[in-house]
């Protein structure tokens, strides 16, 4: 039983390390920032999640103490990774305003809310479904 | 067996931190550097957790949690500074 547990913990730790490494390789290798965002936000977060799951299993199964801190850390990381990625992408779009021409049309009356601000709320129901131009 | 897995994890995450440092030094734009620091904080959290497993103590989880909060808040503050010219309006 302990052997199975050790194999499981080791597999989680190794998987976490591989995912963290893959995310950072993506950060170095990918061509521009909007693609580079994918590596750290997905792979690296998953890697830390693997290490945290291995740690939780280790302390519960082998040390015999139930620790909730890992759950807290992983929930916090999984919640905040998309938020920080969103902020970085938004700041990048504002830094390079020329990228605005490359954005696909929203298909609605108002453009991307990052650039055009919040649309009017009055008769928003009809404006929301009206096709663009 | 866990010792070998921990060694592998240390090596992998340390290489990841070095790659992040390369991006931090090289990064063509400002946001690349912010992203590199954000990723480096996450990798350091992984290192702290692996160290906690090796030392068989749960003391380091507070440090990991503090690192997570500090990294998130610093990223958001820097992005808001770029976006709005001010952190708290």
UniProtKB/TrEMBL annotation, chain A:
It holds the Pfam family PhaG_MnhG_YufB. Residues 110-133 are annotated as: Disordered. One of its GO terms (molecular function) is sodium:proton antiporter activity. The keyword ATP-binding does not apply. The chain crosses the membrane at residues 6-31, 43-62, 68-89. Keywords: Membrane, Transmembrane, Transmembrane helix. PANTHER family: ANTIPORTER SUBUNIT MNHG2-RELATED (PTHR34703). This is Na+/H+ antiporter subunit G. It comes from Pseudothauera lacus.
From TrEMBL, chain B:
It comes from Pseudothauera lacus. GO terms for cellular component: plasma membrane. This is K+/H+ antiporter subunit F. The keyword Ion transport applies. It comes from the Bacteria. It holds the Pfam family MrpF_PhaF. InterPro entries: MrpF/PhaF-like. GO terms for molecular function: sodium:proton antiporter activity. Its main location: membrane. It is a multi-pass membrane protein. Keywords: Antiport, Cell membrane, Ion transport, Membrane, Transmembrane, Transmembrane helix, Transport. Belongs to the CPA3 antiporters (TC 2.A.63) subunit F family. The chain crosses the membrane at residues 6-22, 34-53, 59-83. It is found in: Cell membrane.
